[in-house]
Specification:
By secondary structure, chain A is an alpha+beta fold. Chain A is built from 19 helices and 14 strands. The termini of chain A are far apart. Classes of the chains: A alpha+beta, B alpha/beta.
Chain lengths: 584, 406
């Protein structure tokens, strides 16, 4: 009987989905024996007086799912009021539910005259010992509370329920992030719990102006999404734009931040990511301090950061933790790596099939000797090897870790050695393809490495037809395209194009931290000055006219990780005065 | 607007398909030419020979490609009324496309050089693949084809060998000159200079030079040797300066980098060896009352490398006297070179060009009979300043040196 009912439900759900909301609502109106509303549109009908009817409603709506626990009890003695606590097993913290919600209700002496609403008031004000207590009057709120992990208290004769914040349950503990590793720097990465993630960031920025806005997106999944920014640094217009784009989403489900990313990115038809995502709270904190906005999505460790700039994808978090000269050198290397992973195979094809004169004589001899026995043109050779490599990589990513090793051995043998010995490909092609492969792994963010992966193939085809001429035109088009992109209104290539000299100190070069005067101008438009100038470390007698006591006063406030509230409220005009004062 | 994307797609497909892949050549379709030889046959036709490298036999690192036993290159030649025709005729003998992008040497046969190289060089200079930075040598007393055939022992491809010989010999010994096609081409059409080109000779058994056995013995049967300087007059090879007379000429041309000078000491000839490590020559033209003159100033810096007689090099006085001797020796060599060139009426130093640059108005009067009148009568003064930098690791002589030397 139950099974049959279940099947019927599924069928009806599908029908509703197909026919749209109208028929769904009609269904809900006509029969109350099945359930109220459909899964995307939980009925907003009010709760009833009768506890029994209410429990029956919950049972019906949840299909009698065993994880929805209904604990009936009696509050007070003679006569006592029938009551029930409802919660979803696994979503609640058991200790909270039993010790701070149920226990006080069962143990305490309740004045006998209280009943109905008075009793509910009394419970709310005097008994329940957890936070987040709220009154709920309709089913929609009731179920969203229940599914969040709250414990819902209902009394017989009252058409209200009491929501108590008992969220909890098991989460993956904080671990080292797997996608953005750093030798130096914090070891913690985001988890699947939204609250844990936001707390991690707040530990970096202990400031009341770190604001958060919460919303629920996904009609079926009811996913919690949190927008975080620093009030006073983030540009209000961008915050408003983020809010607008998020609110516009009328999706059925949001399972990962990638869903959100695709809804809010500026341009769909581009190979370049215009939304940054990260697994590291320190990166999010740093970005917030530059005026960016973070979007947390419940259930995923990947946090979105907007606006994203092209150059940002080449910055590893360690760049900021290493000294500036080393960091700058590493960034140069990374740009080179990206360029290599983009054009190495196509340049090889172009040089060997069109521009043999560009290869040094000794090398051209060696290349020619290797190619003597190879049956395919260089283009086919490179293309086949690149595809073979992509197959290996894809296999390596998907395979369980134990088998992954076997794949890499097979790959190394097959591609590296056997293919050359069998005369399929030349050694030099293998070298070029492997350099490209290693380069694409060395790119600090996966998002940009993936773009390079696709564009690489386009370039190989172009340069096989037009040589370097085609390759250069391809690069030109890519650059034009990059310059045309915007991320939440900020030019994607800034601060390089348009060139903003005062921000160029944190692009390919990274100036010493003390030399950072300004935040990215186009991102945080209302609070540009980041810290006080002239903080270069030097012996005390050379600091100039400033008495030592004065500097002693000022510097700790700024060198500590926390940006002082004072700085945040500064407008560029007032900070200009400040600068002048310091300079003299 | 509807067709915007469709139109774009059509354009893209056209651009991809219609132009094809111009000038696309796989490496293994190319015959890599490393050296070009130009000769004149007895019938008066041009004969062009090219050294086509067989990569499999040159690049040592590969296991594949025809076995290591083969020759590193083949020489292919064809005749024609022009170098271009000869070039195209070579396809009769070759399975691949000749590719001149890596040619780094041009060998001109003496017969052609005597008749004039302007036409042949024009064909090379016009070619878009060929690089005018390729070096030029003249096959002295044999054809260019014969020269290209000689297998050389250390560098597998003889064009590389000749090129290295030219450059190393110029910097280390200062008796040969590295001239590229562009310089020769330019000098031939210049009115104020005669060009010089190093000669190359085959020493030993010429017939065996082309065989693999030539490089299988420690002393090859046939060897390529740089020999003398060919002087061009109006685009034609005029005469040869023998190797022992080339240094003075090259020195004034400021082409000498390092070289060795020996001077007599205490009655012993060639007793002290002076090695020049750095030398610079400045040539200053002067016009006085329409009469041209040239001042040459030579700066030389060097070390004492060997002494056959005991010399106390800690003594500044002795050092000064040795320096004077060296200066005199250099002065003699340079003035002899100038005298020699004046007699031959060939201005290989480019004194004429100096006047053209510095006194363009006066040059117009001199230009017409520069070689016949003004150059032979030119007043050339040479001033030398030689400095001994160190005397090696030994300052005071061993006493026994006297006995050994004696």
């Amino acid at each position: 009987m139950r099974l049959g009912k279940g099947f019927k439900k599924v069928g009806e759900f599908n029908k509703n989905k197909r026919l749209g909301k109208k028929s769904g609502r009609k269904q809900a109106d006509s029969s109350s024996t099945e359930y109220d509303g459909d899964m995307r549109n939980v009925s907003r009908a009010p709760l009833r007086d009768s506890l029994k009817a209410n429990i029956e409603h919950v049972r019906r709506t949840t299909g009698g799912s065993p994880d929805v626990v209904v604990r009936k009890f009696v509050v007070g003695r003679n006569p006592g009021v029938e009551a029930a606590a409802l919660f979803v097993d696994g979503l609640v913290d058991d200790k909270n539910v039993y010790d701070f919600v149920l226990e006080p209700l069962l143990q305490s002496n309740i004045p006998p005259q209280k009943s109905g609403k008075d009793l509910l008031d009394f419970i709310e004000n005097s008994l329940v010992a957890v936070s987040g207590v709220e009154r709920v009057s309709d089913w929609s709120e009731f179920f969203s509370g229940l599914m969040e992990g709250s414990t819902m208290l209902m009394l017989d004769g009252v058409s209200l329920a009491l929501k108590t914040g008992t969220q909890g349950g098991q989460f993956r503990s904080i671990e080292e992030p797997t996608s953005q590793l750093a030798v130096r720097g914090p070891r913690e990465g985001f988890t699947e719990s939204l609250r844990m993630n936001t707390a991690m960031v707040r530990r970096y920025i202990r400031n009341p102006y770190l604001w958060q806005e919460s919303m629920v997106i996904g009609e079926a999944t009811q996913t919690r999404v949190s927008v975080m920014y620093i009030q006073g640094i983030a540009n209000d217009k961008v915050v408003e734009e983020v809010r607008r784009r998020l609110k516009r989403i009328k999706a059925d489900s949001i399972l990962e931040s990638g869903y959100i990313e695709q809804f809010i990115e500026d341009k769909t038809f581009t190979l370049f990511p215009t939304v940054y995502h990260t697994e590291r709270p320190d990166i999010v904190a740093a970005n917030l301090l530059e005026g960016r906005i973070a979007i947390f999505v419940d259930g995923t460790p990947f946090v979105l950061v907007v606006p994203a700039l092209f150059i940002q994808f080449f910055h590893a978090v360690e760049d900021y933790y290493y000294r500036f000269d080393i960091a700058s050198a590493l960034r140069f290397l990374r740009v080179l790596i990206f360029f290599l992973s983009l054009v190495a195979p196509s340049a090889y094809v172009a040089a060997t099939t069109f521009h043999q004169e560009m290869i040094p004589s000794a090398l051209v001899l060696s290349l020619a000797a290797q190619r003597e026995a190879v049956p395919f043109p260089a283009f086919i050779e490179v293309l086949v090897m690149e595809i073979a490599f992509e197959i290996l990589r894809e296999a390596g990513v998907r395979l369980p870790r134990q088998i992954g090793q076997a794949i890499s051995i097979v790959g190394a043998l097959v591609i590296g050695q056997a293919a050359v010995e069998a005369g399929f490909v030349s050694t030099s092609t293998v070298i070029v393809v492997s350099i490209t492969a290693i380069a694409s792994f060395a790119t600090p963010t996966v998002a940009i490495a993936t773009s390079a992966r696709i564009i690489r193939f386009v370039f190989i085809v172009i340069s096989s037809m037009f040589g370097f001429y085609g390759l250069v035109i391809g690069l030109l088009f890519m650059t034009l395209h990059l310059c045309s992109l915007r991320s939440f209104g900020v030019p994607y290539m800034s601060p390089l194009a348009p060139m903003i000299p005062s921000n160029a100190g944190d692009t390919i070069l990274r100036k010493p931290i003390w030399a950072w005067k300004e935040r990215p101008r186009l991102i945080s438009q209302n609070n540009i000055i980041r810290q006080e100038p002239y903080q270069r470390p030097m012996p005390p007698h050379r600091t100039g006219d400033t008495p030592p006591a004065d500097t002693g006063d000022k510097s700790p406030a700024n060198t500590g990780g926390t940006p002082p509230t004072k700085t945040m409220e500064k407008t560029p005009a007032s900070s200009g005065d400040d600068k002048g004062e310091n300079g003299e | 607007m509807i067709g915007k994307w469709r139109r774009l797609v059509v354009v893209l497909i056209c651009t991809a398909v219609l132009p094809g892949c111009w000038s696309q050549n796989e490496l293994n379709d190319l015959a890599l030419v490393f050296a070009i030889g130009l000769d004149l046959t007895e019938k008066g036709e041009y004969e062009m020979s090219v050294q086509v490298v067989n990569p499999g036999n040159v690049a040592g690192a590969t296991q594949r490609g025809g076995g290591a036993g083969g020759v590193p290159y083949t020489v292919i030649s064809a005749t024609g009324d022009s170098p271009m025709e000869a070039n195209l005729k070579m396809s009769l003998k070759l399975s691949r496309i000749l590719y001149y992008g890596h040619a780094n040497l041009v060998v001109i046969g003496e017969s052609l050089a005597r008749k004039g190289v302007a036409h042949a060089l024009d064909a090379l200079e016009r070619n878009s693949e060929f690089r005018t930075t390729s070096r030029v040598v003249i096959a002295r007393g044999q054809s260019a084809k014969e020269t290209l055939k000689v297998l050389t022992p250390i560098a597998k491809v003889s064009s590389n060998q000749i090129q290295s010989m030219l450059s190393h010999s110029q910097t280390l010994w200062g008796h040969t000159v590295e001239i590229d096609v562009w310089e020769l081409f330019h000098d031939i059409y210049s009115t104020g200079v005669n060009s010089v080109v190093s000669g190359i000779n085959i020493v030993g058994n010429r017939a065996d030079g082309a065989k693999q056995t030539n490089v299988q013995s420690t002393e090859p049967e046939a060897r390529l040797v740089l020999d003398g300087l060919g002087v061009f007059k109006q685009g034609k090879l005029d005469y040869w300066i023998p190797t022992n007379g080339t240094r003075g000429v090259l020195w004034i041309m400021n082409k000498v980098r390092q070289t060795n000078i020996t001077v007599a000491w205490q009655g012993k000839p060639e007793a002290i060896g002076y090695h020049i490590v750095r030398t610079n020559v400045s040539v200053r033209p002067h016009m006085k009352n329409g009469k041209p003159s040239i001042k040459i100033r030579v700066e030389a810096l060097g070390d004492i490398l060997e002494t056959l007689v005991p010399v106390n090099l800690a003594d500044a006085d002795q050092i000064n006297r040795i320096e004077k001797l060296i200066e005199h020796s250099i002065w003699k060599e340079l003035t002899a070179a100038v005298r020699n060139m004046k007699e031959r009426k060939t201005d290989v130093f480019g004194f004429g060009e100096q006047f053209e640059r510095n006194y363009p108005k006066d040059w117009r009067k001199l230009e017409a009979d520069w070689f016949s009148v003004h150059f032979p009568q030119l007043d050339v003064s040479v001033e030398v300043n030689a400095i001994i930098r160190t005397a090696g690791l030994r300052i005071k002589p061993f006493k026994r040196t006297v006995e050994l030397g004696g």
